[in-house]
């Protein structure tokens, strides 16, 4: 009898094969009290474990095949950098000294502190970075315990791997062994392991709790990465059905790949701009793998977080120039830093206790305007790089016109500094706002008069409009892009941009969700900035849509008062065209 088990599909694809369960031996991290005379040797033992763990990762990196995308290697480099980070080294060594304890326990204490910091973050991508901390700590603990790391040396070709979790290095190694797919009990769609699976095209499901109890070794499985479903002991009918789906999927993928480089135009000849979102310059390589397009959102705060401090002007400039160079003439929209709330660095933590409600506190442009001397280097770098290609600057979290005036004064000051230095910049650098606060959406006409473009940040706009924390399991069921109030605010922003004759884009998760593409087109959105792996699917939808036909349906949606009604209409829109 076939049994259906549900998890979170993080990498699309349908595959079949026998299960192979990876069971990892538990590591003893119990506390042992040491004599003062033993502490130096214990610190030395910890440093040797770090060196051994680092050597293992370097060996994996060295043996990666040449055709592996270079941006995949960045994930291993991230783990190597973590091992060099004082948060690991100095913090653990301090624990050994202060607690007179063994290295295993000291590292355990330090990892708990670091994981707590990430757990308190609101941003889903940053919160899942705790997985990287745990992967690195686990590798070091194995070296301390003198246990083998990595996957078992058996033939895994064509098998579906079942594990509690997989580190990025494990995932890359398994891909080289030609596995059919993998299932993990833990993890989420934004973990590095999930990102690698998508980039390498490995069908994958995560968050399938108790998978190792529900699935037995050598059982034949169907893994549906699209739906997040696993079928164990499938019958003949299920195997035939999923084989047809797999063949259809392969044909669709070939069809989507044929769209690379094609203009983005609707059936009724309306031109649409479709760009990608990035966190760092290296992400442009992934973007180009899908389509040769520009960047509609470069989240610069990742540079702050990786350095754990405010970068200086040259650090900003070098990173932005790498992005402009990699884009080869395609547009780059640089968002100024969005630190605060869930994203903090040591410099900002040191300035005082965290606010009672950080999401409503000193974040993004508010923090920048309060610390103009720290913000100035970023403005100078953006201006300087604007002379190397089509660059735009986007400001997050604006809530009133006064903030725009303050920003422009700072920007004028930065221009004066560059003129004194005789450095070139684009004197007409386009400056835009992210509309992600209801106050900004409601007064958007005034914003449109002052700025060159607008961009709708749906993640925060939905959260603030509906007064909920989208990571709070008690209330996140209310998080709905199709809430009538949210749609009215989005439409208000689009209409305001049209009246002012300036572009309006959307760069939040709603723009990357193919369920909403046609509704947004009908509402008048002509500029999408999306996650790289959804570029071609959204392009396919746009190419097969007629704006004129969608306008009437979108007007109906805007007149509705219940989300369920709108959802039914959106489903109808998606099936009719």
Tell me what the structure shows.
- This protein is of the alpha/beta class and 577 residues long.
- The protein has three domains: 3-22 and 151-238, Glucose Oxidase, domain 1; 36-145, Enzyme I, Chain A, domain 2, CATH 1.10.274; 270-576, Phosphoenolpyruvate-binding domains (TIM Barrel), CATH 3.20.20.
- It is 50% helix and 12% strand.
- The chain is built from 26 helices and 16 strands.
- The protein has an eight-stranded mixed sheet. Strands 9-10-11-12-13-14-15-16 form an eight-stranded parallel beta barrel, surrounded by four helices.
- Strand 5, helix 8 and strand 6 (204-206) form a beta-alpha-beta unit.
- Helix 25 (547-559) runs antiparallel to helix 26 (563-576).
Quick overview:
This protein has 577 residues and is of the alpha/beta class. It is built from 26 helices and 16 strands.
Number of helices, counting only DSSP H or I runs of 4 residues or more: 26
The CATH superfamily label of the largest domain reads: Phosphoenolpyruvate-binding domains
Which architecture of the largest domain would the CATH scheme give at its second level?
Alpha-Beta Barrel
CATH structural class of the largest domain: Alpha Beta
Number of domains: 3
Percentage of residues in DSSP E strands? 5-15%
The largest pleated sheet is described as: 8 strands, mixed
Question: Which descriptor suits the 3D outline?
Answer: globular
Major beta sheet, strand line-up: 1-8-7-3-4-5-6-2
Question: Overall mean pLDDT score?
Answer: 87
- The count of β-strands is 16
Structural class: alpha/beta
- Low-confidence sequence ranges: none
Predict the CATH topology of the largest domain.
Answer: TIM Barrel
Please give the share of residues in helix: 40-55%
Provide the gyration radius in Å: 25 Å
The separation of the N and C termini measures 38 Å
